[in-house]
Specification:
Number of helices: 12
Distance between the termini: 58 Å
CATH class of the largest domain: Alpha Beta
Radius of gyration: 23 Å
Shape: globular
CATH topology of the largest domain: FAD/NAD(P)-binding domain
Number of strands: 24
Number of domains: 3
Helix content: 25-40%
CATH architecture of the largest domain: 3-Layer(bba) Sandwich
Low-confidence stretches: none
Mean pLDDT: 97
CATH superfamily of the largest domain: FAD/NAD(P)-binding domain
Length: 442
Amino acid sequence: MKVIVVGGGAAGMSAASRVRKLLPQSEIKVFEESSYVSYAPCGIPYYVEDLVNDINALVTYTPEFFKKERNIDVHIKTKVTKVNLSAKELTTVSDEGEKTESFDYIVLSTGAIPFVPDKRWLEANHVYALRHLEDGYTLKNDLKNLQNVAVIGGGYVGVEMAEALSKIGKKVTVFEMRRLMPNLDPEYSQIIKQEMEKRSIKVIEGFTVKAVENSGEKVRIVGDTEQPLFDAAVLGLGVRPNVELARSMGLKLGETGAIWVDDRMRTSEPSVYAAGDNVEVNDLVIKGRKRYAPFAPEANKEGYIAGSNIGNQNITFPGSAGSAITKFYDLEIGVVGITEDEAKKYGIEAFPVKIKHNAKASYYPPQEEVYLKIVFDKKRRVPLGGQVVGKNVWGRLAYLSLAIENGITVDRMFFSGVPYAPPFAPVWDSLIVASRIFYERV
């Protein structure tokens, strides 16, 4: 059997490695258009801020490792341009020219691409969109001679890049069409804004960027109001699934615009699987709905599932609740599930609980706070979504994610054994307090 993997990121290399383990006699080739495979693009902001000194530290395994240790034939700087499903052949283009490869199965793990409203923005000098490690390398080197930087977009990438640029002494302005982290409630977004302003970062919300262009050697941000010129602009407007190849193959796309797959990661074509940031999966909160979840944990597991099923296993991927976490300096930010507005949209009678609480025992220094909102389903008595901002967020978000994904009732939550010790949590943890409020009032 010959398996071709298109894309050497988390999902692709996970799929290739799984096929190798289950089908040791198979032929496996991976085609990756960048210079790296098995890399962590999520680490680019930390490379930019000098927390990570060597870009290669963001690479888990090299192409040479896969060739030598796992007998997986990895080709970097190679793009798959066309797939002929009826002939089971594909075409690649690299420095060596155009070649044709046969296959029995394909795994599409083409990932996501940065959202850019107008491609002309990227034609301007000193305007950056981050996707591959090379993009981070270019940005970091160029920044040595640039000081005044605009960050366009106040989501995950925008917040992380604002911190990174601030830490290396750049003057930073963040432009956001709505508000910072728009998937949070306004008051939680305001907390992030205040933290940014404490770090001398200028935040301009409610600003629609209409164009990004050069004015001499500078970058002009065109919008409703006149803005000063910048030395550079970093785009952090989110991502979109990279479905160009899938569309050309005639594969079914789903309601989110990503590739449709079943729970075995198989596309509408039986010989083609897909995994990673280019697919949509089941929504674990709203049954019957699909979710686009471009996160590394999901990508690794989806690749594992795709490779397992090519290897004659029968494993299914349940879906995602969209658990995600980031930080700005010492402020941690976590979200999972759906918002109160989304619950109403789907006709769910929601009961939101919002509290401000001690992140640990009040007498244990320093005093730290956590802001927590949980949206409960009033009828089913289960959590549907949550927002956690402040200190010690990861553990609380992990707990809440498990509760949402497994339909754990508020009664179980209230009586669950959340661990306690003064350095980590108060006796009545915020999660227990929130469930207690619902328990007593509904």
